[in-house]
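Lab notebook: predicted structure, single chain.

Context: the supervisor wants predicted structures on file for every construct in the current expression panel, including those that have not yet been purified. This is the next one on the list. No modifications to the sequence; it matches the entry in the shared construct table.
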Amino acid sequence: MRFWRKSSATLLASVALVAGGTVGTATPASAATGGCAQGNLCLYAGTQFNVPKLTTGKTYECFQLAHYQLDGPYHIYSYVNNSPVKADLYAGTSTLDVFSYVGTIGSGKFSSNTQQNFNEADVVCTGGREAYWSQA
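Prediction complete. Output recorded below exactly as produced.
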């Protein structure tokens, strides 16, 4: 019986050690760049990942930036692309349903200050989707 108690205590100590080690090495979700969760594209109206405006996990969709207050006077000033697909930015033109390419945010890329490179953008499309005036 004495052997059983030692084994139980040893087993419990080992389980506690393993559990503690697992918890200690886990990376919290809040540690993600800019607070953007894995699988999402996050666009911010402020530098340094401040003022989050658009967060999406959709991998084949377009979004009108005006719906997310990411057009004048606010624009995309920082971003994180934790999604598995690229995000292309387009500006509308004077011709209906014709868009001008502005730039791309690659998968796994981020910037804490875009230096206003995307100020012309009106639409962002994920996964190579062709630009259109989406209701999203």
